[in-house]
Amino acid sequence: MKKIQLSVYLDPQTFRTLDVFAERRGQPKSLVAEAAIASFLSPDDSDRREAVVAKRLDRIARLLERLERNDTIMLETLALFIRFWLTSVPALPEQSSPAARAKGAERYDRFIEALGRRLSSGSTVLKEVSFDLNAEIPE
Fold this sequence. Notes:
Elements: H1 12-25, H2 29-41, H3 43-88, H4 97-121, H5 125-136
Protein name: CopG family transcriptional regulator
């Protein structure tokens, strides 16, 4: 098939980019320009880009749904624990209050240390619960 000649004017930077790209590929500049124009005019190109964007958006949506589920589990767990703790732990008598505060501060410090160790190791209760539930579900 006979090709039709087209003369175009390019700004110097675009021409240098075309020249470098064609040299690197070992192709004539006219072939590179023809492929670029064909790609630009191709309706499939925009469809492919749209499909890629849609796929990424779907992945992000699934990730956000998983994060929302994990947050719901965490908040419900914390709320149940607080309710249980408040209903099962009796109030302290006035005379034992300073000693109880000191013991509470000590326990809190140990809790923060243990939390830091677990978070730095990557081990979480949520993962353990998920693994336990998956093991109990019959196939």
